Amino acid sequence: MTKLHWQEGAYPGDNRRLLMCGTVAVGAIFLPGPRARYTRWRAWCTARMNAAEGTERNPDQARTEVEKRFTEFLHLAGLAPAEPRDDA
């Protein structure tokens, strides 16, 4: 498995930030619009095997929540994120 990283949205105006594990999106945060107060988040790979979602006051808290849910999933599955191998 490869290192987790955050990726910007796919098109201009896309307010999502995706949590990627390699090329697989495992969760996302949705930055608030001009009049919104909260950052929404959703984790697709969770320990309960169902998507989890919620809101946080700022993007950093939302990122932490998505990462926490995915880490719980990895622990339950007996997996762990790892640095990419250097085969050179």
Q: Helices and strands in order, then pairings?
A:
Blueprint: E1 4-8, E2 16-21, E3 24-30, E4 39-43, E5 52-56, H1 59-77
Antiparallel strand pairs: 1-2, 2-3, 3-4, 4-5
Helix and strand element order: EEEEEH
The unreliable regions are none
Biggest sheet details? 5 strands, antiparallel
- Helical stretch tally: 1
Give me the count of strands.
Answer: 5
Query: Quick one: overall form?
Result: globular
Explained architecture:
This protein is of the alpha+beta class and 88 residues long. It has a domain at 4-10 and 28-77. Helix content is 22%, strand content 32%. It is built from one helix and five strands, in the order E-E-E-E-E-H. The chain has one helix at residues 59-77; strands at 4-8, 16-21, 24-30, 39-43, 52-56. The chain has a five-stranded antiparallel beta sheet, covered by helices on one side. A hairpin with a 2-residue loop joins strand 2 (16-21) and strand 3 (24-30). The protein is globular.
Summarize the structure.
The protein has 88 residues and is α+β, with helices and mostly antiparallel strands. It is built from one helix and five strands, in the order E-E-E-E-E-H. The chain starts with a strand and ends in an 11-residue tail after the last helix.
Characteristic key phrases:
1 helix, 32% strand, alpha+beta, globular, five-stranded antiparallel sheet, 88 residues
